[in-house]
């Protein structure tokens, strides 16, 4: 799988924003009203951060975590969407929606690479004639 920087940026951006928002909510005077929001934001941040690492590494488990990340981001977005009077909630909601789209892109890329494995393209042998391996090793 070839990774795209905008997907990585979306995942890490969501992780950072959800961490920041959870910290802000934990400082609230009416923290009891924010418990679920805090925990879902922390979960979302952890999932996005972990998925970003697997994605960049090209792990075979990226697709599995992307599916789970979609679910966690959806829960987080739904929870913060209840607090429509807070601008930060709307930012988190928008970021989670963007991250869900990035996770869907990861899943689509994985399915494309699976199809490529079933029908691999062959490289003509004529491309390799005249290549001296010593030159390629040292240059």
Automatic annotation (TrEMBL):
Domain of life: Bacteria
A Pfam family that the UniProt record links to this protein: Csp
Name of the featured protein: Four-helix bundle copper-binding protein
Organism in which the protein naturally occurs: Fibrisoma montanum
Lineage of the organism: Bacteria, Pseudomonadati, Bacteroidota, Cytophagia, Cytophagales
